[in-house]
Amino acid sequence: MASDGRPQRDAREANLRVLRDCLAAGPMAQVELAAVSKLSEATVSNLVRILVEQGHVHVEPGIRNGRRTRILSLRDRPAPWYLGIEIARTRVRVAAVGHGADPAVHAAEIPVPCAYSQALDTVVELVRGLDEGRGLSPARLAGAVVAVPGLVRATSEGAAPDLLGEGYHQAMGWGSVPLTRDLAEALGTEVTVENDCNLAALAEMHAGAGRGHRDFMYVLGHAYVGGGLVLNGRIYRGGGGVAGEFGHTVVDSGGKSCWCGGRGCLETVVGEAALVEAAGEGRVGRPRDLAQVVSGALAGDARCRAAITDAGTAIGSVIGAVATPLDLRLAVIGGPLTGAGRLLLDAVRARLTAYVGQLHPSTTAVAIAELGDEAPVRGAALAAARQAAAPG
Ligand SMILES: [Zn+2]
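^ ROK family transcriptional regulator, sequence as received from the core. Prediction below:
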């Protein structure tokens, strides 16, 4: 047992340095500082008091997750901020974090198809709007992440991630374009690319259905079916960068061929085209899109209800197959399919219960995502801030 208390003082000094390094990435609430620094909230509370007394840290009121809280920032450097960008088929969105408030999303419609240069110009215009409205100086923009509905390749350590294939660019009608390089030039900051579902999962962990969970899976039901896997508070990428693509988990080995080359993937059962077909087969006035299948189900249409229930059963199988061996306590489902509410959830839970049986010591809760279609851009802004705090 040390009598002079030096080891304790050394540990305290080391922890004070850790907190200052964390805050160098941008202002944050005390609870976020505890999460980022991996120190207990009680320890952080004590150390923050010391940093404030020493004059290193400034405290001001702010809002996180819609609640009033105290935002901490370093006094001796201007606060940087981080940008999330999403360029989707009909809309561009941007969101900023790192300035002591919840990310506010700014969006603009774009034509379909949209010229590449027009998409870039729209991003720049929206960022200028953020600056004018909220005092976010371009000089302090310290990084950006762009969300894309495409696979993103894991590259060697320290190298920037990159889009896998040209599917996204082709869907946008652009051909081969250096998206991240051009955005970086236009914005004057480093820009990296990330899969939109991974980012949506990150946003749900921060401020949505995944709050309080460090391990969960996220499944998105849409035109396509994507997903993300959060382990230990971080997006799990796997060996090739495409972990969490639950849409290509086989649920029916004798089922339909999938564009991915497989057969009977989850997407061939719960993707928009599959649900529209299942709900409308052989009848007049068939639903034309997923929204109509969902509204038909809610209005009591038997075929639409059956399509949603079957989708829930298939999703429940995949959740069971993933969450059971990983002992995940939460699965979050996002996308327009969740408009069916309990009808979908009941089917998912029924299948999950049957799948897991009595052997498993814990149950996996199933929740509907809370952040809607703003989740990817919110997650992109958070990811940009996280990259700065913990590169790689
Ligand atoms: Zn597939």
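The longest strand covers residues 57-64.
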